[in-house]
């Protein structure tokens, strides 16, 4: 108990130790501990992402998300985006691609195809991107609602294994 009292008595109201003129030293210690708070979630997401990449690397089948129509509709969306239509006409045509799925899935896939070209990995890139976004969202929601990083990491693990 005396060591705690000594420590408290050695700290000035500005947060510096007596005899120390460096505020940066104390700031580095708090920022280093705050920067490592997301490390467990990052490790879990990296393990599952590495597993996903390994799975895709070993898988030689045609990439189908739900059906081959996703692939065809993402190419149709790419053609719409590259056409000489007005922005309003492009938005209307993209919204008419599918009534079941939101147009964002085809739009993101089409953007990847426009930027990186076409290929098997490019077809899988939107799925990987949405997967990473889902893991990040589950972690942030878990820490916000539960207030516990361990519970949020467990939520990510359950989500990735289901």
Helix and strand topology:
Layout: H1 2-9, H2 23-35, H3 39-58, H4 68-82, H5 87-95, H6 103-116, H7 120-146, H8 149-161
Give short descriptive properties of this protein.
disordered N terminus; mainly alpha
Provide a concise account of the structure shown.
The chain has about 160 residues and is mostly helical. It has helices at about 1-10, 25-35, 40-60, 70-80, 85-95, 105-115, 120-145, 150-160.
Strand-pairing-aware structural class: mainly alpha
State the major sheet.
none
Strand content: under 5%
Oligomer: single chain
Structure commentary:
There is one protein chain. This protein is mainly alpha-helical. It is built from 8 helices and no strands. The protein has helices at residues 2-9, 23-35, 39-58, 68-82, 87-95, 103-116, 120-146, 149-161. Helix 4 (68-82) packs across helix 6 (103-116) and helix 7 (120-146) packs antiparallel against helix 8 (149-161). The chain is elongated, with a radius of gyration of 25 Å. Residues 3-9 and 27-32 have low confidence and may be disordered.
